[in-house]
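Study this fold:
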Amino acid sequence: MDGNGPANPTRADEVSAHQEQIRKLVGAMMTLTGLSATGLARAAGLTPSTVNRIMHRAVRHTLSQSTMLALMTETFLRLKNKPIQSIDQTALADLAPAIAVYELGMLEHAPDIAEVIRTAKAVGKGKFAAPLAPEQDSVSDLPVLIGSSQGIDVLAGDFSKAPLKTQRPPFLIGDAKGFAILMPDETMTPRFDVGDMLYVSPARSLEGTKIDVVLERRGGGFVVGGLAAITANAVRLALLSPKTKDSYERDKIRGIYRIVGVQRLGG
């Protein structure tokens, strides 16, 4: 059945899992640079509270892509002249999943860090560190969809026509049908902004209140909204901008999948 899965975590658990992923990435950058969260933020030209808040308090948001890009770039600038033997391999391996997301942006800001980025990617692939288990390696790339994506069948695990890929976050490891989608429009502002990357798990239950979902149309295309109601004949999604509720006929829907995390584009 659509959205059924083995687990029924609360929304707070899901946000916490995403926050822990960010904490792990920032912690790896702190280890690699030898800086505190405050020092790393200042070195990257950020307000320290931006990073400290997510490292020390339970929050419902995460760091924006621009913030993560600044932190990643500063980290690799500090690593570029260090020999591989002097770099903490565990921390570098922990950071490797974020490289696929931020590599192009980092190189635009600092082209001279290309070599250390290649080294870090090699660590992530197991060249200098222990390789991933086969079952993890087989799903290391996460397909990224857009609202108009065609030729996708999530329930069948067919993402061969996904337009983009990114590194699979830790909380979707082992979820072979998990995917990401770029928020296509302003209908969920301010919860999600246009271009935010939403992480989605078809394995997660749709039970609970105030959950956000991605609806897959049988004819192709995806819709994002808050799950308002499911009946035998229709699914109702609540939108925020403007505040409305849209209904979709069940026989025209292939699946309904729970959003379990978000990577903000800005803010």
Notes: The chain has seven helices and nine strands. The longest helix spans residues 11-33. Residues 157 and 177 are 5 Å apart (CA to CA). The longest strand covers residues 253-263.
